[in-house]
Write a structure and sequence with these properties.
The chain has about 110 residues and is α/β, with parallel strands linked by helices. Helix content is about 35%, strand content about 15%. The chain has a three-stranded parallel sheet.
């Protein structure tokens, strides 16, 4: 089974993130959400295990039906690929109301 992979911190998971993965789910694709293993700080109030749990709680039905998987990966400095690797690199540009969602603003409301 193939998956469309999304890599992020997801700090915290919000409806903009959901919009993003829905772009592939709505095309009948499965989604792999990779949680970057970053250290807790002002920009990352949750540890990777908490993030994984938050995402899994928000997407329980999709995980139960195996449409979505969530894993923790080491923090990355780049994504690289060679030619003819058998997969696409796809950018999804959100509409204005989704693009304006800010995890930074959400964290300020949650943590002050």
């Amino acid at each position: 089974m193939k998956y469309s992979m999304f890599i992020g911190r997801w700090q915290p998971w919000h409806k903009g993130h959901r919009w993003l993965i829905d772009q592939r789910l709505n095309e009948g694709k499965n989604v792999l959400i990779c949680v970057r293993e970053v250290s807790k700080d002002d920009k990352n109030p949750y540890n990777p295990i908490e993030v994984k749990e938050n995402v899994e709680n928000a997407l329980k039905e999709l995980i139960d039906t195996k449409r979505v998987k969530v894993i923790i990966i080491p923090d990355i400095e780049s994504v690289n690929y060679g030619r003819g690797v058998g997969y696409d690199i796809i950018e999804h540009l959100p509409p204005k109301n989704i693009g304006e969602i800010s995890a930074t603003k959400i964290r300020k409301k949650l943590f002050g």
